[in-house]
Every structure is written in structure tokens, then in C-alpha cells.
Amino acid sequence: MKRISYLLQTAAAMLILATTSTATAQTLNVYSKGTATNIKAADIRSIKFDKKLTISSPTSSAAWTFEFNAVDSMTVSAAQTASYKGSITKGLADSVWTSAIVTSCTGMFTLGRSGRIKDASGTSWIVPMEVNAGRAIPDLFTPCTGSMSTADTSKLETIVIDPDGVVITAYLHADNYFELYVNGVFIGRDPIPFTPFNSNIVRFKVKYPITYAIKCADWEEHLGVGMEYDTYNVGDAGFIAYFSDGTKTDETWKSQVFYIAPLDDPSCVVETADGVRNSLNCSKKPACSSNKNPSGCYALHYPIPDGWSLKTFDDSKWPSASIFTEAQFGPKEAYTNYRSLFRDAKFIWSSNLDLDNFVILRKTVTK
Ligand SMILES: [Ca+2]
Ligand SMILES: [Ca+2]
Ligand SMILES: [Ca+2]
Q1: What pLDDT, on the 0 to 100 scale, is given for residue 141?
Q2: Is residue 350 scored above 50 in pLDDT?
Q3: How far is CA 306 from CA 217, 315, 319, 328, in A?
Q4: Which of 101, 163, 192, 365 is the most buried (most CB within 10 A)?
Q5: Residue at which a domain ends, from 62, 79, 96
Q6: Ligand nearest to the CA of 225
Q7: Is 63:70 a contact under the CB 8 Å cutoff?
Q8: What is the pLDDT of residues 251-282, one digit of tens each?
Q9: Same domain, yes or no, for 60 and 119?
């Protein structure tokens, strides 16, 4: 929470920016009771502050008026080339439910729960992502019950998409959760949404070209703000997979983020016209996390586009996946005991392993 003295300084600075910069570059972002107002400098004629902050438009009689005690913060950022599409929420989810099959387990068990949170327009968002409650993919390794043996893996069910297709076995490991779609068909989901860390194996029969679309979540305990444990830690994420036809996760995959949290100030996320949502300028240790104050955390949410799992979906404007080293990912035994099965696959995610909590990864293989 910024102080009024800061606001006055910021507002005064903005007045100068608004009057001295011409057509380019600045946006005034005002955050008031969880609602953001983003105003381009070119749309500001004057800024007046008395007991209220009033920003008037140069082209009409319109004015934006804010009560000082309802303004959380004001920032200045570069004007974005597209309209700001992320929806902003503040604080914790207002309803929470259990979303997992696994409700108890030995080891470092944390129950996977989902939450619902509303933005200022009344739109509800499910965090960290909406779960498909269908088939659970078998564990390759789980600390809950131990690993499948080699004999067991040879008895895996083959999920048939195309009877005349090729049989592919996939090895997958997520921090923390994934759902696999192949050519738009739901193959299954990770049975353990949060912790402990498991790895998975699944077999299917499908014809080329093959489009993999994988919904992934970095799970959270404080739903709506992307934090975990009593420490209000900002959790980190990552995903790796190897497919027996040689397909592997690497920088040729596409990745788009749909939920970014926790944020002290959502304007640190830069959206560009080509669909990139970049949170790398945001603090990985926001004050609302170090203060253990989830009510002060913001989150950004984006709707999932129709057809996201289909071959026909155009992901050409999505960013390429970012790759991370094993040291950055920090895998546990669910991966390290099976490293040879993952061969030269790389750990991937969007560009931000910490704040980007729900991503969709896509790759089309033609052979
Ligand atoms: Ca998992
Ligand atoms: Ca996270
Ligand atoms: Ca995590």
C-alpha cells in the first residue's frame, strides 16, 4: 500500500509526463479497490488533486475521479500496443474445494484444492486452473504407493485415438500438475495436483500429424494468489516429457500463460500485440509474499481460447517455450530415478518459472 505523499509525487510527475511527452509511450495506471484503470498519457489533459484525484480528458468532458483513500497505488508504464486483456483480481479466492482423487498420501503431502475468485466485473476465474476430472494417468513413480515395475509398464492400457495409428509411450513429469490432450482428445491427467512430486507414463495410438496440447499448473495452497505453505512462498513450476517416437519437450514447443500471481502491482506485466504476456519485470519476492499478506496480492487472469487443444488451432503467435536447467527446476526422485527414460528432453515452461502458474504447452509433430 503506497502512501498519499507518494501518490502526490507520482501524480505530479505524471502531470509533467503527460504534458511534456507527445504521442508516445506513457500510461498512468491507477489501482483502486482491486480495479485497475489504465490511461494513456495522450488521453490526459490535466491532473488535479485536492481531496480527490481527478484526471480529465483532452477530447471530451470525461474525467476519471478517485478518492485518495480508495487508491492502492499509481504507477507509470510504457503504453501497451494492444488493449490490456488480463483480468485483475485481488486477494484470496472466495470459495475453495478439493479437486483431486488423491486425498491422502505418505511423505510431503499437500491436498490439491481449487478456488474461485471474482474480478471487478464479476467474472469468475478458477485457480490455479479448471480441472478435467476424467481419467488419471498412471504414475511412473509416486511417493504415495511406490513405482510401477517394468512388468507393469508393459501392461499399460493403450488409449486408441486412431486404430491405424502408431503406438507411442509418453513419460511426463510436472511441477506440479498436467493434463494431456492429443489431437484434441483428452488422454488423462496427473493424479497428484500438488505434492508429493510424481512422474507419469501413458500409452496411446495415433496418426501423424500429432498435436500435443498440455495444460499445466504450478499448484498453490493460498488459492488466488499463487503462494504455498505457512511461509507464503512463491511456488515454482516446470514440465518435462519424452515420447517414444523421439518427440521431446524443448524450445520448439509453444507456451502461453493464463494466470500470473502473486503481484504487488499488475502493471509490471507487459502485454504486447503479438500475444506475449511477459511477467519477468515483476518481483519474484513481492512484498505481499514477504509480508505474508495475501489480501494485498494481485493476480492476472486470461481466458483460454476456443479450440486450444485442436490440430487446427493457430498457436503461431504464442511465445516459444523457455527452457530451464535441471538445477533451475530442482527435480526430485520422481524424475532423477528415471532420468534415462526422459533422454534429452528439456525442462520447459513460459518465460517465468515462478509467477506464471497456469500455462498451455503445444507442439505439432509431422512425420
Ligand atoms: Ca503432480
Ligand atoms: Ca508460482
Ligand atoms: Ca510448484
Answers
A1: 94
A2: yes
A3: 19, 12, 18, 33
A4: 192
A5: 79
A6: 2
A7: no
A8: 999 999 999 999 999 989 998 877 899 999 99
A9: no
Please check whether residues 196 and 257 belong to one and the same domain.
Answer: yes
What's the confidence (pLDDT) of residue 45? 76
The residue whose grid cell reads 499399460 is 156
Flag whether 249 is in a domain. yes
- The answer, yes or no, to whether residue 84 has pLDDT greater than 80, is no
Mean pLDDT of the chain: 87
Q: Do residue 219 and residue 335 come from a single domain?
A: yes
Alpha helices in the chain (DSSP H): 4-20, 150-154, 287-290, 326-329, 333-336, 339-342
Kindly give the distance from the C-alpha atom of residue 26 to the centroid of ligand 1, in angstroms, as a whole number.
42
Residue 347's domain spans which residues? Answer: 113-365
Range 54-66 average pLDDT: 75
Residue 37 Cα to ligand 3 midpoint, Å, equals: 32
Ligand minimally distant from the alpha carbon of residue 279: 2
Q: Single out the residue in 79, 102, 128 at which a domain terminates.
A: 79
Q: Does residue 94 sit within a domain?
A: no
Does one domain contain both 117 and 73? no
Separation of CA 236 and ligand 3 centre (Å):
4
- 63 shares its domain with 119: no
Indicate the number of domains in the chain: 2
Same domain, 13 and 148: no
138 lies in the same domain as 220: yes
From the centroid of its chain, how far is CA 84?
17
Q: Tell me which ligand sits closest to the C-alpha of residue 175.
A: 3
Q: For 23-46, write each residue's pLDDT tens digit.
A: 345 778 788 776 778 787 767 777
Q: Which residue has the higher pLDDT, 75 or 242?
A: 242
Q: How many CB atoms lie within 10 A of CB 181?
A: 20
Residue 180 and residue 239: Cα distance in Å, rounded? Answer: 12
pLDDT over threshold 80, residue 113: yes
**Any idea which ligand is nearest the CA of 174?**
1
Whether the Cβ atoms of residue 302 and residue 308 lie closer than 8 Å to each other: no
Distance in Å, CA 218 to ligand 3 centroid: 5
Residues 285 and 188 in one domain: yes
Shortest-distance ligand to the CA of residue 102? 1
Residue 191 belongs to some domain of the structure:
yes
